[in-house]
């Protein structure tokens, strides 16, 4: 156990104001005393010569609880203090994983902040690297060649090739490097590196438009089918953003139902004016999903559900849409032989899946998680269509009645 300053030999130090009642002694002259008894520590102190160096963890004061910081951050990376040689005290560090919500107690030090994990039973604050310090050392690692350039990611698996075994999207949507015309869109600030994002609790009010729900998926997820199934179950509450296309209208189709049918000139003009969140070409026809199509659904007080390529996420992360991002990935067995009880992602003869396909599905999920995981609110692992549909339906229902952490810029007025 750590030694409390309530112990006799520490009381004299309290008078100096350097330590306080409740502080914990961790080391004496570099020697750990965590498991030592008070008499053992007293003996260690008596044998010390010259200056004595103590490592002490400060206690949480009652007045500090009353004036707790209201700064909350979403961690966008994993942190293990015991592996961080730069920390002034590894034992005092606070470990966390990407996605954890941290309550930052103090930012007085430019290098090390003190924070607590929200929902953690341990009320003691720990040390975490500050945003500036973490960004600087990531930049140094990239300069030294030990960290990949975040602006030059590997070509993701979901962009490779054409349709094979029903795993890939029917057409590839072009990347959109520009922001929308209003200048909105979140890229976590000007830094190349994502470290923390300040957040706040948000719950949709009755007079507000429903939040946008965005689905992204790795190979084999078949998110369009999942989306259509959930919407078909309750079309009065959920709807899709009707896409635009330049292909001719078929006899049974209606304008604004299956598609918005436009000329190539009009489509090109809309694309030039940055009206699409993403667009692409398939069989010499253009297809795209527009911002206005999303707004049209929300104006009817319906929850709009869209499935997009991950590149579109940053553009959709605005205070207007407050998107809730769900990453859908199939549960991939170790080999094709263990998939006998599952339905092939492609279906039928054309949908037979090889071990190579399964490996591509795994790699696709890994790459999306690495490049866009910090933008994801929920991961849905798809066992089968029925269970995935039920899980998605539950998520949509909770969005309407529960509060969630969102970027603080979305709730500031």
CATH class of the largest domain: Alpha Beta
- Helical amount among residues, as a percent range? 10-25%
CATH superfamily assignment of the largest domain?
P-loop containing nucleotide triphosphate hydrolases
Share in β-strands = 15-25%
For the biggest sheet, the summary is: 6 strands, antiparallel
Question: What is the CATH topology classification name of the largest domain?
Answer: Rossmann fold
Helix/strand order, N-terminal first: EHEEHEHEEEEHEEEHEEEHEEHEHEHEHE
Record the strand order, biggest sheet: 8-7-6-5-10-20
DSSP helical segment count: 10
* Rg of Cα set: 27 Å
Regarding quaternary structure, how should these chains be classified? single chain
How far apart, in Å, are the first and last alpha carbons?
A: 48 Å
The figure for the number of domains is 3
Give the overall average pLDDT. 81
Q: Which term fits the overall shape?
A: elongated
**Secondary-structure content class:** alpha+beta
Low-pLDDT residue spans = 1-9, 153-183, 338-344, 346-350
CATH architecture of the largest domain: 3-Layer(aba) Sandwich
């Amino acid at each position: 156990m750590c030694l409390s300053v309530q112990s006799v030999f520490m009381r004299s130090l309290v008078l100096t104001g350097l330590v306080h009642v409740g502080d914990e002694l961790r080391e004496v002259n570099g020697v750990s005393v965590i498991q030592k008894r008070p008499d053992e520590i007293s003996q260690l102190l008596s044998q010390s010569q010259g200056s004595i160096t103590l490592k002490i963890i400060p206690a949480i004061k009652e007045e500090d609880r009353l004036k707790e910081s209201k700064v909350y951050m979403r961690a966008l990376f994993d942190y293990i203090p015991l592996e961080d040689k730069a920390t002034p005290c590894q034992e005092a560090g606070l470990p966390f994983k990407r996605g954890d919500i941290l309550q930052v107690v103090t930012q007085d030090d430019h290098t090390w902040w003190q924070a607590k994990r929200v929902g953690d039973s341990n009320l003691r604050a720990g040390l975490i690297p500050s945003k500036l310090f973490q960004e600087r050392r990531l930049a140094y690692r990239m300069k030294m060649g030990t960290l990949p350039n975040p602006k030059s990611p590997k070509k993701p698996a979901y962009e490779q090739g054409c349709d094979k075994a029903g795993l890939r999207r029917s057409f590839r949507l072009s990347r959109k490097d520009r922001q929308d015309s209003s200048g909105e869109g979140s890229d976590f600030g000007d830094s190349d590196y994502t470290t923390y994002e300040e957040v706040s609790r948000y719950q949709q009010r009755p007079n507000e438009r429903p939040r946008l729900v965005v689905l992204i998926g790795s190979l084999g997820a078949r998110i369009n089918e999942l989306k259509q199934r959930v919407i078909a179950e309750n079309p009065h509450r959920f709807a899709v953003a009707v896409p635009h296309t330049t292909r001719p209208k078929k006899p049974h189709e209606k304008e604004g139902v299956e598609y918005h049918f436009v000329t190539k000139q009009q489509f090109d003009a809309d694309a030039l004016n940055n009206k699409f969140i993403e667009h692409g070409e398939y069989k010499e026809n253009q297809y795209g999903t527009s911002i206005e199509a999303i707004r049209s659904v929300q104006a009817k007080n319906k929850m709009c559900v869209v499935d997009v390529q991950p590149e579109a996420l940053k553009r959709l992360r605005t205070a207007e849409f407050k998107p809730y991002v769900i990453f859908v990935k199939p549960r991939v067995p170790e080999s094709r032989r263990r998939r006998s009880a599952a339905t092939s992602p492609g279906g039928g003869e054309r949908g037979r899946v090889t071990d190579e396909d399964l490996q591509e599905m795994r790699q696709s999920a890994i790459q999306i998680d690495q490049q866009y995981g910090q933008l994801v609110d929920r991961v849905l692992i798809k066992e089968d269509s029925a269970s995935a549909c039920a899980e998605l339906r539950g998520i949509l229902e909770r969005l309407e009645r529960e509060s969630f952490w969102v970027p603080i810029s979305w709730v500031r007025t």
